[in-house]
UniProtKB/TrEMBL annotation:
Protein's recorded name: HSP90 family protein
Highest rank taxon of the organism: Bacteria
Family: Belongs to the heat shock protein 90 family.
Keyword Nucleus: no
Cross-referenced InterPro entries: HATPase_C_sf, Hsp90_fam, Hsp90_N, Ribosomal_Su5_D2-typ_SF
Gene3D superfamilies: 3.30.230.80, Histidine kinase-like ATPase, C-terminal domain (3.30.565.10)
GO molecular-function terms, A-Z: ATP binding; ATP hydrolysis activity; ATP-dependent protein folding chaperone; unfolded protein binding
Chain positions recorded as ATP binding sites: 57, 61, 93, 192
Annotated keywords: ATP-binding, Chaperone, Nucleotide-binding
Length: 652
């Protein structure tokens, strides 16, 4: 390998020097030395993800060489043959070939590429030609061969200079190379053959079955014919051109089936649908396959991106917007830039524009389905409704189009918001799943319409309903709304229970909770605790403010907000509540209220605070104590078969 000595730059002559007392000795120029082994180690361990990239680099050089030859002669043959034997591997192309001078300049100079001009521009003239013809650009690709072999042999004949001799170049991983002129018969036609003898530890990468698999993976979409030949002369065709989505088929159904097969072979799933992708500005074509099963949005997308047919990445999640996690794509593009390892895409403005444009395409497919194939849309939504909801939150048009299809959990069952709003002009939103579970049956019995807003995205989406369906009112479920819709009890019963209710208010008032007596179904439920998140936060804040002092208490105090108090609704239809309302024993009433409150509290399934656990404990002990006292008293009277509740009911 050669390291180019840098000529003195014009700046060296013009550079101004600072005044110094004695003349300085003239600086001596030196040249960087390159330790090729160190460089190969860097590439193999830090740039490339696996030794297998050697084949990609060889295929890519062959493709570029054919492209360069086609610039000279569009009729020239374009074929690549990989010979995979037990002891060596070679890649032969019918490309432009190299003269001896080319070999010194391009092949043997690290970082030099015929695909850029001397200033490093990609749109160089001459052999390089237009950038858009080539995949390579960095001038390091051939080094990937040293990851699997210690020596590379290149036998080449130039098409650009037909009378130039056949050249054999042997490069070694220690940095030395030799050049030999060979007779014309050694390579009768223009083109290049690169041969490697793998090191013992890398032999697995050049075995014929591995080579076929790698060639299919990297080169399955190459536009020139690629064939792998084994020791016995058996030929395996690697690619069929054009790409599956660009071929002509007898019918739309035949095309559809072919793409389904392609998806199965590539991603191992049967797609729900396929979306054609085309962005002529960057020469991109391809297809997005819709996943038949839901995936967590955080899962990496794994799109396959080819540049000019050559696979660059099979994990390119930056190709589509994050929300499009329900598709997997295969695309082939002209105008995207690979990174130097050629295992990812360079994150430039073009990639950002491509991502946006592909996002629009996928969104259009989605919105178009509602008109073209409602049954498919239905299936899609039942699998991917979370993805669609995530998307619809930020996309008004999509929300408008898909709202009629999105399912929500409501007091009418699993229905769409549109359907729900037809029967409930006021839509109440429970903010947590627990709140919904607890309140929904009672609210439904009272004729209220409640949507479970406890799931990700649902609350936000329901609140946007009035924008799309004017006249519908959406409001968060709060305790007073529910209580207002439950049947009130008749004034005489309310009066009779007044003493009991006063004690109850005293007991639960300490927990910032009001008490109401109502009749509601199911009658088996003695009490309902209506509470919401804001009210709870407000209470926690107030508690903290009370227990802190100084500045902290002032800060917490200034955050005070008007939040609805919790409400304990006692059910007058419930026999236990009626009985509790009729007893006059103050301590037993207190224990009963604490127990009713505690039970309603447990049904909310939220974590209990220390004071609430203490209340539950207290009421349990008090009731137990009371039951045993009652039992003893009954024993004395010789009426030991009455249950404790019965006893308690009789005390007055
Ligand atoms: N099969 C080939 N036929 C003709 N020229 C070749 C062939 N393989 C390599 N070369 C020449 O050797 C140069 C260096 O190749 P190398 O693979 O190291 O880098 P590159 O292809 O230019 O860029 P990259 O590092 O991006 O792959 C190429 O620019 C090309 O001029």
């Amino acid at each position: 390998m050669r390291v180019t000595r840098l000529p003195p730059g014009p700046d060296d002559r013009d550079r101004k020097s600072f005044p110094v007392s004695s003349p300085q000795p003239a600086p001596t120029a030196h040249t960087f030395q390159v330790d090729l082994r160190g460089l190969v180690d860097l590439l193999s361990h830090h740039l490339y993800s696996s030794p297998k990239v050697y084949l990609r680099e060889l295929l890519q050089n062959a493709v570029d060489a054919i492209s360069a030859r086609h610039r000279l002669d569009p009729q020239a043959p374009g074929a690549i043959t990989v010979q995979a034997g037990d002891r060596s591997l070679s890649v032969t192309d019918t490309g432009v070939g190299l003269t001896e001078a080319d070999v010194h300049t391009f092949l043997a100079t690290i970082g030099r590429s015929s695909k850029r001009d001397a200033e490093g521009r990609l749109d160089a003239a001459g052999l390089a030609g237009a950038r858009s013809d080539f995949i390579g650009q960095f001038g390091i690709g051939l080094l990937a061969c040293f990851v699997v072999a210690d020596e590379i042999t290149v036998l080449t004949r130039s098409a650009a200079t037909p009378d130039a001799p056949v050249i054999e170049w042997r490069g070694s991983s220690d940095g030395r190379y030799t050049i030999t002129t060979r007779p014309g018969s050694a390579k009768p036609e223009p083109g290049t053959t690169v041969t490697l003898v793998p090191r013992a530890d890398a032999a697995q990468w050049t075995r014929v079955d591995q080579v076929i698999e790698l060639a299919r993976n990297y080169g399955g979409l190459l536009r020139h014919e690629v064939t792998v030949v084994d020791d016995r002369g058996e030929r395996t065709r690697i690619n069929e051109t054009p790409a599956p989505w660009a071929r002509a088929y007898g019918s739309p159904l035949a095309r559809r089936q072919a793409l389904v097969e392609h998806c199965k072979a590539t991603f191992d799933f049967t797609p729900l649908d396929t979306i054609d992708l085309q962005l002529p500005l960057v020469g991109l074509t391809g297809v997005a396959y819709v996943l038949p099963e839901a995936v967590p949005p955080s899962r990496r997308a794994g799109h396959r991106v080819h540049l000019k047919g050559m696979l660059v990445s099979d994990q390119a999640d930056e190709l589509l917007p994050e929300w499009a996690f329900f598709v997997r794509c295969v695309v082939d593009a002209e105008g995207l830039r690979p990174t130097a390892s050629r295992e990812g895409l360079y994150a430039d403005e073009t990639l950002a524009a491509v991502r946006d444009a592909l996002g629009v395409r996928i969104r259009d497919w989605l919105t178009g389905l509602s008109a073209s194939d409602p049954a498919l849309l239905h299936r899609f939504i039942s699998v991917h409704h979370l993805a669609v909801k995530a998307l619809a939150r930020y996309d008004d048009e999509l929300l408008r189009m898909l709202l009629p299809w999105l399912p929500f959990e409501t007091t009418d069952g699993n229905v769409t918001l549109d359907e729900f709003a037809r029967t409930h002009r006021t839509v109440l939103v429970a903010q947590t799943v627990e709140e919904f579970r607890q309140v929904a049956p009672i609210a439904a019995a009272a004729g209220l319409g409640v949507v479970n807003g406890g799931y990700t995205y649902d609350r936000d989406l329901v609140h946007r309903l009035p924008e799309l369906r004017p006249g519908v009112l959406v409001t968060d479920l709060d305790p007073t709304t529910v209580t207002a819709h439950l049947d009130s009890v008749d004034p005489a019963a309310e009066l009779a229970a007044a003493g009991f209710l006063n004690v109850a208010r005293e007991v639960v008032g300490r927990f910032d909770c009001d008490v109401a007596l109502r009749s509601f179904h199911p009658a088996s439920a003695p009490a309902l605790l209506l509470d919401n998140r804001e009210a709870r936060h407000e209470r926690t804040r107030a508690e903290l403010a009370d227990s802190s002092d100084g500045l902290w208490a002032d800060i917490l105090g200034s955050l005070r907000a008007e939040a609805p108090r919790a409400q304990l609704v006692l059910n007058h239809l419930n026999p236990l509540v009626r009985r509790a309302a009729s007893i006059g024993h103050r301590e037993l009433v207190i224990a009963a209220v604490e127990a009713l409150y505690g039970q309603a509290l447990l049904l909310t399934r939220r974590p209990l605070r220390a004071s609430e656990s203490a209340l539950l404990n207290r009421s349990f002990i008090a009731l137990l104590d009371h039951a045993m006292l009652g039992h003893e008293a009954a024993g004395h009277e010789g009426a030991g078969h009455d249950g404790p509740g019965h006893q308690a009911g009789r005390e007055s």
